[in-house]
Specification:
Layout lengths: L2 E5 L2 E5 L3 E3 L2 E3 L2 E6 L4 E5 L6 H10 L1 E7 L8 H7 L4 E4 L3 H4 L7 E2 L12 E6 L7 E6 L4 E3 L14 H10 L10 H5 L5 H14 L3 E3 L6 E2 L2 H8 L4
Parallel strand pairs: 6-7, 7-8, 8-9, 12-13
Antiparallel strand pairs: 1-2, 2-5, 3-4, 5-6, 10-11, 11-12, 13-14
Length: 229
């Protein structure tokens, strides 16, 4: 099985390792089953026939979510494979990818289609990028993209490992990369407001797009990871 079940109606899929400025980045997709077996896809990964077959056994792909302006690489193939699905863009992504039709830009509140199961907010304050954060209420799971990266200690080698450690993205103390954190220099009040809303959710688990997820004590880990705010 390619899809790993994390909780009732919640799965993750380990995607390809991609090169990001020369660094090998593991990637991860999240799948939530909503009412009437509709599937919500967070940060779509490379689409294969086997993945399509497994998705078909749990529901119908209806919502494609790009949570920031970096996670869109495989989106066109999903749009082609699932023309009935609605496609949602993080703030700023429409401008970056004018070649892709997006049905709607994500806002600071959950869309009606998934508001019964998923909360959302925009983590504001960065001059470089805004990330849309999601919280799966039934499983108390926070779903992040780049605001926490938590790679195993042995993932990077040589000089890359030293840079990764300096950047603050190695487990068990992974957080947002230092360059991303610095982009909030003049926007800390907005970032704190978003962080406090996240604290109110009291997550038990945290699914990450890059690196090791946190299962159990998610709130404790989140408070440590966002201490920079």
């Amino acid at each position: 099985m390619l899809l790993a079940k994390i909780a009732t109606d919640l799965w993750i899929y380990e995607g390809e390792t991609v090169s990001f400025y020369g660094y090998p980045y593991t990637t991860r997709m999240t799948v939530v089953r909503l009412t009437e077996n509709s599937l919500w896809i967070h940060s779509p990964e490379k689409l294969t026939k086997q993945l399509q077959a497994e998705l078909a056994t749990i529901g119908e792909v209806r919502y494609l979510v790009s949570p920031n302006h970096l996670h869109h690489l495989f989106l066109p193939e999903w749009i082609a494979a699932y023309p009935q699905a609605r496609n949602y863009a993080a703030p700023g992504l429409k401008k970056k990818r004018p070649d892709i039709h997006f049905d709607k830009e994500l806002a600071d509140h959950a869309e009606t289609e998934w508001s019964k199961d998923i909360d959302q907010l925009i983590f504001r304050g960065s001059f470089a990028m805004q990330e849309v954060i999601f919280f799966h209420r039934p499983s108390r799971t926070l779903i992040l993209t780049d605001l926490i990266e938590n790679f195993p200690q042995d993932h990077f080698q040589g000089w890359q490992k030293h840079i990764a450690k300096f950047a603050g993205i190695l487990a068990p103390d992974g957080k947002a990369p230092i360059d991303f954190r610095l982009s909030f220099l003049f926007g800390k009040p907005k970032a704190r407001a978003a962080r406090d809303r996240m604290f109110d959710w009291q997550p038990q688990n945290i699914i990450l797009s890059h690196g090791q997820c946190i299962f159990g004590e998610g709130e404790k880990y989140m408070r440590k990871a966002f201490a920079w705010v």
